[in-house]
Design goal:
The protein is built from five helices and ten strands. The chain is α+β, with helices and mostly antiparallel strands. It has one domain: Hotdog Thioesterase (Thiol Ester Dehydrase, Chain A, Roll), CATH 3.10.129.10. It has a ten-stranded antiparallel sheet with strand order 1-3-4-5-2-7-10-9-8-6. Strand 8 (about 250-255) and strand 9 form a beta hairpin. About 40% of the residues are buried.
Length: about 290
């Protein structure tokens, strides 16, 4: 069923409960490469207890799978691309907690028949025990098959601009050849990340890594370079997905320290000469 506009804007989703245990927090951090050096105490704080810390981007594991999912909204998953992701962190993410999640459709921008549509959803996460707002996720999907749906003509927000100078720092993270299979355990079981046949149908010669895994790695790069590995220093983290990462790639994150509290970033795979994440912006708590 294709997108029904403007009815899609009135999509009502019952409040959902999502629980993270320490095991989930550790699994997510391991997928981002924490613990690769068993003697690095700064990294080990994300993968062991006591004092286990959660990555600020950990809640993004639900961005693609919490209701309303794009499939439920009438978007063909085979023609859907994860375009952008943003997380706003209103208080540090607990290592173990239960969230009440509310989801809604923020906007639909019709690019025209045969040109697709942009669909933006929002999920707010509140602590089930205290009622405090913990995080807000904004997810942008490019629905290639939904052009001409009649969506609003709201202009697309201008992307964050990266400085036209050499980066102030660069951090490289190797990825495991089987990383997508591990990251699937966080919840996103899209066969594009595990089934070679499904990947070929999607236009790739092999399964690709989840964009949200790369997104988390860029946040890790910011934390270790400008945040002293303290998760409480992140107020928000956002970026665009430019090209896929393949498990086994070496992800290089370029970082620019700008005005107080702002870090710009992009990510690339040097061996393939491709930019994979663009227009990145982190707001630090200052």
């Amino acid at each position: 069923m294709p997108i029904q506009y403007p009815e899609i804007l009135d999509t009502v989703v019952p409040e959902q409960l999502w629980t993270w245990e320490e095991r989930d927090t550790i699994l997510y951090a391991l997928c981002l490469g924490f613990g690769a050096d068993p003697l690095d105490n700064g990294n080990l704080s994300y993968v062991r207890e006591p004092g286990l810390m959660a990555m600020p981007t950990a809640p993004t594991v639900i961005a693609w799978i919490a209701e309303p999912t794009f499939t439920r909204l009438g978007i063909d998953p085979a023609l859907a691309l994860h375009g952008e992701q943003k997380i706003e962190v209103h208080r540090p993410i607990p290592a173990a907690w239960t969230a009440r999640v509310s989801g809604r459709v923020r906007s639909v921008i019709d690019k025209g028949r045969n040109k697709g549509a942009i669909v933006v959803t929002e999920h707010t996460l509140t602590d089930n025990t205290t009622g405090e707002l913990v995080a807000t996720l904004t997810t942008t999907c490019f629905a290639r098959g939904e052009g001409g749906c009649g969506g609003g003509a709201t202009p697309v927000k201008r992307p964050h601009l990266i400085p036209a100078r050499a980066p102030d720092a660069s951090v490289s993270f190797p990825t495991r050849p089987d990383l997508a299979l591990f990251y699937r355990l966080t919840g996103d079981r899209n066969p594009l990340h595990a089934d070679p046949a499904a990947a070929r149908e999607g236009g790739f010669d092999r399964p690709i890594l989840h964009g949200l895994c790369s997104f988390g790695m860029t946040c890790r790069a910011v934390l270790q370079t400008f945040g002293n590995n303290d998760p409480a220093c992140i107020a928000s983290h956002q970026a665009r997905f430019a090209s896929p990462v393949f498990p086994g790639d070496i992800l290089t994150v370029d970082l620019w320290r700008e005005e107080p509290g702002i870090v710009s970033f992009e990510a690339r795979v040097e061996a393939r000469g491709v930019k994979v994440i663009s227009n990145g912006k982190t707001v630090l708590c200052v």
